[in-house]
Amino acid sequence: MGKESPFRGDIVKGKVALITGGGSGIGFEISTQLGKHGACVAIMGRRKPVLDSAVSTLASLGIPAVGFEGDVRSQDDAKRVVESTFRHFGRLDILINAAAGNFLVSPEDLSPNGFRTVMNIDSVGTFTMCHEALKYLKKGGPGRGSSGGGTILNISATLHYTASWYQIHVSAAKAAVDAVTRNLALEWGTDYDIRVNGIAPGPIGDTPGMSKLVPPEIDSKARDYMPLYRIGETWDIAMAALYLASDAGKFVNGTTLIVDGGLWLSRPRHLPKEAVKQLSRAVEKRSRDAPVGVPKSKL
Ligand code: HXC
């Protein structure tokens, strides 16, 4: 927080955004930055004290903000919060699905209900919010006149690109979120002019995810093989959200932007760089110098 934005201050001016999980962590920074760039902000969450404190911080920055209690697992809550946002601000342009659930657990210790709980928050919750928001987001929806449709951003992860220890439930849930992003981008992009994208953050400091999933001693060790040698900031994710939610991203639809400094590509270095250079030259030399007819396996 407090870092300067490279974007103009009015890039989402006049827009109304609803952010689930907007009271803390990544969701709160997205709420703050959308607000700082001109949007009115509604945040949805389960914990009233968290919502109240977030709304008062947003208000102190001059951001028109309101909080609505609700659980994305409840279709009634989703419907009520979307309607309340529309009633409060008169329109809805941007839906950000940032609410998520997580804990570390091995598959054999995870009950089917534990698995289902995370699927329900992350995947079903994301779909439910999109489903309930559609009538407000679509082209020609209430308050939209005949202007283009709104936009949706789903916060995902990179866990499921390969596989992740103790994260089978979240990997499955985020894979489903990415599928929802792509399918809605196709269908609602075509039918209603709604752009649907995602963001896959890497490890981000000062978030519930980081404190729940990465003990501090592991955290400092892990930095040794991170491509950019650092963990991200909530600001990094919020800037990606601004790009995708504003007209800067007006031709981007159906993508999930990875914002992790390249971490998902990283592998521990198995040989030092100098050793590779020598080894590689030596192997070439051996193969050049070898008498013709010697089988490769003998080189
Ligand atoms: C094993 C667990 C568990 C644990 C819960 N369960 N915690 N199993 N290890 N540590 C099981 C319970 O035993 C139960 O199954 C089922 O999950 C539901 O648990 P409840 O406590 O009843 O659920 P609930 O109160 O609804 O809480 C949901 C929650 C909780 C997901 C468990 O942690 C939560 O509300 N989290 C929201 C905030 C959050 O996690 N934010 C971090 C997001 S980080 P049984 O069978 O016993 O009934 C993030 C980053 C992703 O998303 C990307 C990472 C890189």
From TrEMBL:
Cellular compartments per GO CC: peroxisome
CDD domains, alphabetized: TER_DECR_SDR_a (cd05369)
Highest taxon of the lineage: Eukaryota
Native source species: Rhodamnia argentea
Keyword RNA-binding part of the UniProt annotation: no
Keywords annotated in UniProt: NADP, Oxidoreductase
Pfam families: adh_short_C2 (PF13561)
GO biological process terms held by the UniProt record: fatty acid catabolic process
Basic and acidic residues bias: start-end ranges: 277-289
Reaction equations catalysed: a (2E,4Z)-dienoyl-CoA + NADPH + H(+) = a 4,5-saturated-(3E)-enoyl-CoA + NADP(+); a (2E,4E)-dienoyl-CoA + NADPH + H(+) = a 4,5-saturated-(3E)-enoyl-CoA + NADP(+)
Example of a GO MF term: 2,4-dienoyl-CoA reductase (NADPH) activity
Protein name: 2,4-dienoyl-CoA reductase [(3E)-enoyl-CoA-producing]
Catalytic activity, EC: 1.3.1.124
Region of interest: Disordered: 277-299
